[in-house]
Design goal:
The chain is an alpha/beta fold. 35% of the residues lie in helices and 29% in strands. The protein has one domain: P-loop containing nucleotide triphosphate hydrolases (Rossmann fold, 3-Layer(aba) Sandwich). The model is unreliable at 200-204 (pLDDT under 50).
Length: 228
């Protein structure tokens, strides 16, 4: 078992695209706070908060907690607008970009909703194609500035036909094949577990399975743990 700090070092060791698949959306705000706090120790964080959960979390922190995260550190936060090109303008703004650190997209689910808009005629192939173009642009900008690109992905249950022709529902990443192709690494969060610490306060813990995507050949599993 490896430490969460090992994982952060792996993420920032070189520019790469990493999908973080979250099966339980309840843990996502606390999970991303943990990531952001650790990553800010290692460089800039440009956070594209399309879900608005992370922004809401920051607003609900005490002044002391808020300053611990953002004071004198390079956290750049963008919230969504009706124009998807605002996201591109944000990550390409040279006045806020220096080499190193990460760009975080939270999440691919909201990006696809933004791309689809209010149209009732869009299909998943078209949405994936348009999302893929935007992700490719952010990838190129991130790599130009030697940054890793983290993509949050809230998994959804999909029907799957079993060998005996029965149907089962299994959690899969949104974007499927497109996300596997784009990702150098896929991290899957485990089921949320609760434990009681010495102070009798619940402590939420998570594990991440480190899984190399198919394009890099095979899988390699490591488990990381951290308190949320």
């Amino acid at each position: 078992m490896r430490t969460f700090e090992d994982l952060l070092s792996q993420i920032t060791s070189r520019p790469q695209t990493i999908t973080i698949a979250v099966a339980d959306p309840r843990i996502k705000p606390a999970l991303m706070r943990k990531f952001v706090e650790g990553l800010l120790e290692l460089g800039q964080v440009h956070y594209i908060d399309l879900d608005l959960q992370f922004s809401s979390l920051l607003q609900n922190l005490s002044d002391e907690e808020y300053l611990e995260i953002v004071a004198d550190r390079s956290l750049h936060l963008i919230q969504p607008s009706d124009d998807i090109l605002d996201v591109i303008n944000f990550v390409s703004a040279s006045e806020t970009m220096i080499a190193g650190g990460v760009v975080i997209l939270d999440s691919i689910n909201s990006l696809q909703n933004l791309v689809a808009g209010s149209s009732s005629t869009h299909d998943s192939k078209t949405t994936n194609y348009r999302s893929s173009i935007l992700i490719s642009v952010i990838q190129m900008i991130s790599r130009f500035y030697l940054k890793s690109f983290l993509i949050l992905n809230v998994t959804k249950a999909r029907p799957k036909t079993q060998p005996d022709e029965s149907i089962s529902w299994e959690k899969e990443i949104v974007g499927g094949r497109m996300m596997r192709y784009k990702s150098d690494l896929i991290l899957e969060t485990s089921e949320l577990k609760q434990s009681i610490g010495a102070n009798s306060n619940p402590t939420a813990k998570f594990t991440l399975d480190r899984e190399f995507s198919a394009k890099n050949g095979g899988e390699e599993k490591n488990v990381y743990t951290a308190d949320l």
